[in-house]
Amino acid sequence: RALRRYVLCEVVSEDPRCRQCIEDRAVGLAVRDAIGRVHGDYGLACCSISFTVKYLNAYTGTVLLRCRKDSYRLLCSALPFVRQLESRAQRYPCILNTLHVGGTIRTCQKFLIQYNRRQLLMLLQNCTNEEERRCIQKSLLSCSIAEEQSQSGDEEDDDGTE
Fold it and tell me: Which domains, from first to last, does the chain contain?
């Protein structure tokens, strides 16, 4: 059984077009490039063995990266050096903000639910009208429902064989 780590990140960019053009291939290439620049060929070889972009949500900018447990520190230390994503011959300046490192996809999902809930609560405090308040409260409710459903579901981790 291969031991892995899952690194949950968010793509932060001032250019609103950036998130619409994100593809897993572009994220994977940008991360590999950063690892190569920071850690050289050795670091790139260590990280590349099991590295993959497991999940990408272009709408929220959420990215889940997978790597071997013994090389996740190399991966995490290179992420701040990702400065742009390239897609369809366009370059979009951005950064990858590491949110969480977990041993399973499930722990990353649970963290993301809590993180989104905290973000929504902050938005709720800054609401300017009742319409915004209702929308955010509805989103908060959907966060908690999704979490309860996932807790009652089967425990399935993606730490199986490759």
Answer: 4-103 (3.30.70.3250), 111-148 (no CATH)
